[in-house]
Amino acid sequence: MKLAITGASGKTGFRVAEEALSAGYEVRLITRNESKIPDSIKGCERYELSDTNGVTLDYALKDCDSLVIATGARPSIDLTGPAKVDYLNIQKQIESCKRQKLKRIVLVSSLCAGKLIHPLNLFGLILIWKRFGEKSLQKSNLDWTVIRPGGLNENETNLKNQNVLFSGEKTQEEGSIPRRLVAKACIEALKTKDSIKKIIEVTSSEENPKTSMSKAIKTFSI
């Protein structure tokens, strides 16, 4: 299976690539020109794009079986960033997938996507635009999964004791999760048929019972 990853140079994206390699996927990194990637994924096939429009993205997705979208706007003085990255750019990726007959997509979004009253919306209504991006995927007729992580952190010192809480849409509003566990959740979603056409919210803690995504999905409805 050949997996494409957009936003592969980002803090979550490169971890998705590492986890995909560990799971036996053939990985294609899709990054912007001159983006830096860690040594651990430098052996992967890589396409560097100056934008994500039309034929350039089509070419980068050619012959891939699935896509993880790990692109996301960062807090910036450019308040139009979230609309461009989390909505319009998602639409472009969806249309490219359709042209390339790529059916399986996992989108990394955010807890509270769509919620208006939230501090993150001070950065160009980022949660509102993330929800618009999700809706574009939901309307696409592709085999999609949306992963909504809580607050992201870089801590990887205690991962074995961190159990992921998988839940349905609008069931969690707070909590955090290491980016590494988000990356693992993306790969688990690709392997879990029941995750198709599901929005899955994820946080983690030592207090959560240990479970799998497939078992958790059976306990909630979306």
What does it look like?
This protein has 222 residues and is an alpha/beta fold. The protein has helices spanning 13-22, 54-61, 81-99, 126-138, 179-191, 213-217, and strands spanning 2-6, 26-32, 45-49, 66-69, 104-108, 143-149, 151-153, 163-167, 176-178, 198-205. Helix 4 (126-138) links the parallel strand 5 (104-108) and strand 6. Helix 3 packs parallel to helix 4. The longest helix has 19 residues, at 81-99.
SSE arrangement:
Layout: E1 2-6, H1 13-22, E2 26-32, E3 45-49, H2 54-61, E4 66-69, H3 81-99, E5 104-108, H4 126-138, E6 143-149, E7 151-153, E8 163-167, E9 176-178, H5 179-191, E10 198-205, H6 213-217
Parallel strand pairs: 1-2, 1-4, 2-3, 4-5, 5-6, 6-10, 7-9
Antiparallel strand pairs: 8-10
Helix pairs in contact: 1-5, 2-3, 3-4
Summarize this structure briefly.
The chain is α/β, with parallel strands linked by helices. The protein has helices at 13-22, 54-61, 81-99, 126-138, 179-191, 213-217, and strands spanning 2-6, 26-32, 45-49, 66-69, 104-108, 143-149, 151-153, 163-167, 176-178, 198-205.
Outline the biggest β-sheet. 8 strands, mixed
Distance separating the two termini: 28 Å
CATH superfamily: NAD(P)-binding Rossmann-like Domain
Shape verdict: globular
Please tell me the total number of domains: 1
Which assembly state applies to the chains in this document? single chain
The CATH level-2 architecture is identified as 3-Layer(aba) Sandwich
Strand order of the largest sheet: 3-2-1-4-5-6-10-8
Q: Strand-and-helix sequence, N→C?
A: EHEEHEHEHEEEEHEH
Strand content: 15-25%
Number of helices: 6
Helix content: 25-40%
Strand segment tally: 10
Radius of gyration: 16 Å
CATH hierarchy class name: Alpha Beta
Mean pLDDT: 94
